[in-house]
Amino acid sequence: MERGYWIKSKPIYTSLVWHEKATSHLVLASGIGGMAALKLFQQMHPAQPVTVLYARYAQMEVDYSETLKKVVPDNLHVFKFEEDLLTELKSIMPHMRMGLRIYVAGSEGFIWEVAKAVKPFGVDDAHIMKEQTDTLARNVYCVHCKAITKSVTTNIVACCGCERMLFVRDHFSRNLGAYMGLMVDAESPGELPAIEEIYP
Amino acid sequence: MNMIDVRVAAIEQVTPLIKHFKFVKEDGSKLPPFSGGSHIVVALDAEGRTYRNPYSLMGSPTETDAYHISVRRQENSRGGSAYMHENISVGMTLKITHPVNLFTLAKMAHKHVLIAGGIGITPFMSQIEDLNRLGAEYELHYAFRSYKQAAFVEELQKACGNKLHCHSDSDGNRLDMEALLSNQPLGTHVYVCGPSPMVVSVLETAKNLGWPDSNVHNEQFLAPPVGESFKVQLAKSNLEVQVPAEMSMLEAIEAAGVQAEYLCRGGVCGRCELSVLESDGGLEHNDHFLTESEKASCKKIMPCVSRTKGKRLVLDL
Amino acid sequence: MALNFKQESFRDDYTYKNSAEAIKRFPFPFPEDQYMYSVNIEPHTKGKPGSVYEFPFDVDEHYVAECHDRAITLAEDAGRYQALPHMMDAQWDFLELAMESLANDYPEHFTLTKNGSVWTWENKPLGICDTFTFGDITTLPREPFDYMGRQVQGDFVLLDQRDETLYADAGMVTCQADWSLAFNVGMSWREWHGPVPRATELGVMDRALKYLMNLQLANPVRRLNWTMTVNPRLDTSPENYPHWGGDRNKVNADNVSELIHLRVELQSLFRLPRSNGIVFSIRCYLMSLKDIATYPRWAKRLHRVQKTMHPDLIEYKGMTKFHPLVVEWLSQFDDGADIGIGTQPE
Question: Does the ipTM surpass 0.90?
Answer without folding.
Answer: yes
